[in-house]
Amino acid sequence: MKEKSKKIQFNQKKKKIKKNYKINKAIEILKKIKPANFIESIDVAFNLNINPKKSEQNVRGSVILPHGTGKKIKIAVFTTGKNIKIAQSSGADFVGMEDLANIIKKQKIKFDLIIASPESMELVGKLGPILGPRGIMPNPKFGTVTNDIKKSIKDARKGKINYKNDKNGTIHSNFGKINFSNEHLYENFLALYHSITQSKPAQLKGIYFKKISISTTMGPGINIDHLSL
């Protein structure tokens, strides 16, 4: 069996593996964990008591984190007419139609967010096999299929994130960077937690959150006492 690195051993000593922590304490522990040689993201996994095979129980939504994610995102916009100039002046990294589709097909540029106006969706729909698995297929529920291109770009730059459960009923998301203040991480976490809480399927009864854990990009997961939230 491969011996654990000194870093892993150091980090695991910082927490009791099976213990659940209040979110404030968990954030403090993350700050004390031996860091990587880059500014790590802070991630959260919400394991939900849902049946992902039932469409009515799937959870998806979006929320603007009050302090953003700390990540500079690359935004592409599919649109036509006057919205082209609006998208360009609003800070889109690339605006186009067929030319943008070709860039995506050839994977010349990896975009973090795709926004599309309604009339472009016939073209964008053909890119589903590429955009879908990456979680960036435009969707009206996320505000990424819209005529208000300016607002959609503005929200994304402010820290808007989209979330949805995977096939195991878990929502994975980033809610900041390790160099954020404890208070900002706490407020970002609560905004995301409350948004997912409000997205609870109406048909679901009983427990909603089975388990919540947070971690840095390279660090161990820390279980959250979600009953204290």
TrEMBL record:
Any matching Pfam family: Ribosomal_L1
Ranges annotated as spanning the membrane: none
UniProt entry keywords in alphabetical sequence: Repressor, Ribonucleoprotein, Ribosomal protein, RNA-binding, rRNA-binding, Translation regulation, tRNA-binding
GO cellular component term, pick one: cytosolic large ribosomal subunit
Family matches, as InterPro entries: Ribosom_uL1_bac-type, Ribosomal_uL1, Ribosomal_uL1-like, Ribosomal_uL1/biogenesis, Ribosomal_uL1_3-a/b-sand, Ribosomal_uL1_CS
Gene Ontology molecular functions: rRNA binding; structural constituent of ribosome; tRNA binding
GO biological process: regulation of translation; translation
UniProt entry tagged with the keyword Heme: no
Similarity field: Belongs to the universal ribosomal protein uL1 family.
Stated role: Protein L1 is also a translational repressor protein, it controls the translation of the L11 operon by binding to its mRNA.
Quaternary assembly: Part of the 50S ribosomal subunit.
Protein name: Large ribosomal subunit protein uL1
Organism expressing this protein natively: Buchnera aphidicola (Cinara curvipes)
